[in-house]
Amino acid sequence: MGHRHASRRQILRWSMAAGAGVLAAGETDAAASARTLGAPLGPYGERSPFEKGIRFTRESRTPETGSSFTPIQESLGTITPSALHYERHHGGIPSIDPSVHRLVIHGMVERPLSLSMADIRRLPSVTRTLVLECGGNSAGEWAAPGPDVQRTYGMVSGSEWTGVSLARLLEEAGVRPGASWVIAEGADACRMMRSIPLGKARQDSLLAYGQNGEAMRPAQGYPLRLINPGWEGNANVKWLQSLRLTDQPYMARDETSKYSDLMPDGKTRIFTFEMEAKSVITFPSGGQMLPGPGLYELTGLAWSGQGLVDRVEVTVNGGETWQRALLQEPRLPIALTRFRLPWRFDGREAVIASRCVDETGYVQPTREALIAARGTNSIYHYNGIKFWRVRGDGTVVHVGA
Amino acid sequence: MWARNGVGLAVLMALASAGSINASLGSASGVAQSPRFGVGRAPTADEIRDLGSAIAPDGTGLPAGSGNVSQGRAVFAAHCARCHGRQGEGEIGARLVGGQGSLRSPRPLKTVGSFWPYATTLWDYVNRAMPFDKPGALQPDEVYAVSAFILNLNGIIGDDQVLNAVTLPKVQMPNRDGFVPDARPDVNGLKPRPQPTPVR
Lengths: 401, 200
Fold this sequence. Notes:
The complex is a heterodimer of chains A (401) and B (200).
Chain A: H1 8-18, H2 21-29, E1 56-57, E2 66-69, E3 87-89, E4 102-107, E5 113-116, H3 117-122, E6 126-133, H4 149-153, E7 156-165, H5 166-173, E8 181-186, E9 193-197, H6 198-203, E10 206-211, E11 214-215, E12 225-227, E13 240-246, H7 253-256, E14 261-262, E15 268-270, E16 278-283, E17 294-303, E18 309-315, E19 323-324, E20 326-327, E21 337-345, E22 350-358, H8 367-374, E23 388-390, E24 396-398
Parallel strand pairs in A: 4-13
Antiparallel strand pairs in A: 1-2, 2-3, 4-5, 6-7, 7-10, 8-9, 8-13, 10-11, 10-12, 14-15, 16-17, 17-21, 18-19, 18-22, 20-21, 22-23, 23-24
Chain B: H1 2-18, H2 23-28, H3 45-51, E1 66-68, H4 69-79, H5 81-84, H6 119-129, H7 140-153, E2 162-164, E3 179-181
Antiparallel strand pairs in B: 1-2
Helix pairs in contact in B: 4-7, 6-7
């Protein structure tokens, strides 16, 4: 059916679907004539309408609790745009006026404090670039490897966070002898609560209000979020409103019945905070297609909750041999690290994968090694090596498909 | 007023940079609590109750009040059954009963009865997060009562048991001893990392 026969309504539909593409085609036709002016300046920027990458959100009968996955297959560099940061909510995203929000620090302290956001912003600020990964990222991989990188490894994002040192605030409050835990509570409808060891709070925890150069997004905890570098996302309590110093963990629902790791012997590991070294190839990855044989840049992301990525090794022959990928500098501890490897696709099937080695010497394990250690019912903290199969025709699928 | 505040701030900042302002000066002003930076004030009792309502496994923080199984049945029918099913069998909301003895099986069923280690956690979670679309709506008596009903459904407490701040922490949950510290790294022959604080 040609355009000649199309109704006005159909043409309108095509135009809307094509978006600004229609304009671009028009410009080409009018190449010899005068150029038209571009759009005027605006108060808050938006990305190009040609860019379509979006988070994937699972269908849910209760959309206030659920997960969304960052399109890491389209990510460039190491920072995730705030608008594409993965999300995991348990009671919806609260709307909080920062002029009335308060944080109370109480319990086993010499000087209980009630702080406004203005108080917190007056304190010396700290900025750190960090990876944040949901404890349940890649949980589906325990049962069977999944088809594309967004839905299997996409609950990970990288941001620059700005806030204040929790250790400094605890000095202001004066921690009493005997205190060993900090109970953090959020202001969302479900009042998310986690018990954090005092040692972590004194080591490197932040109370963040900034993300990627502006106030953090509501979905990320606006106006205040506890950031525990290298620890599972849920322990980074959003919309933070209370820190209670105690001599015991409080055994919250989200640290006992959830975010705990059931082992084959029926015992459950609790307080499994750390996210271990992990990496995944984002190009070429499941669902993508190489247009034909030739030279490509294979690339992906690596990170470790334990510190720096020391190296990333890549196989293009199903794990027979591994070679070192180039790491994008500067590398930062507990931050997304981009790796790259020039690779000539010769039109024959290739099974590719990456494995991360962090500065502690920890080597990202295979799925088989993880299952041997933990069975398949522990849900959280899956960090296995992900294999993709590049078929001879250039299509890419997950191994197991 | 403006001038006095301005001077006060300047003095505070000078002292803060010298790191020498002491705690008594901070609190004596009645405004600033924090000794070095002079920010914040003492929280009110209401603020601590409203913002930090966490309940400890030893019962610290539990309010006055009480509830029993039959009262809980009514509360459950009114507020919980539409998501969790009439007998806690689960629907749009999580299943709340059953699964005892299943944790070692290929298909473990993790419920309040089979998995949760502390009854205080049930009280705390119902109080803070339930009903899902109206959290905080239940009064303490109702939370005690519905906790009693759910524990009774699981065969953990008897039909006549009354729950309150004294009896709730004493409830023995079947999986109380089922939790162990993190043992990672647990692959490639590595030794587990030391844990920051022992698990009780």
